[in-house]
Amino acid sequence: QNFLRAMMGQLLSRGTLTSPTKLTSTLGAITKNLTVSEDWSTSDIRNLAFSLRSMSTDDVTFLTAPMKKYATTDSGASVVILARKQSHALWQAISDDDIAGYLAKYGDKTLLGSPSSVR
Description:
two-stranded antiparallel ribbon; mainly alpha
């Protein structure tokens, strides 16, 4: 999460989202190094980025999905089992744009520390 927060801060501070040239270059680098859904095109990502161009890192809350326990699959893979009720509440809070309400009910589990700790 700190990596994503630091990356977002760098993108915003350098005017990447407001510059079509910088954004095109950045999207090219991102899409070469990340796997995204096949039906989510580079233009979809660009449109999302442009819609967020007035956002700052202070506008974003980083949270960890509510975890119930760690487990292991039959094939030996490690998995995280989410707390069902609290997870549903989180997804609803995201949908309703009410993260503050979720945090008031379930406690503040936001990411701590400075994004500058990851460079």
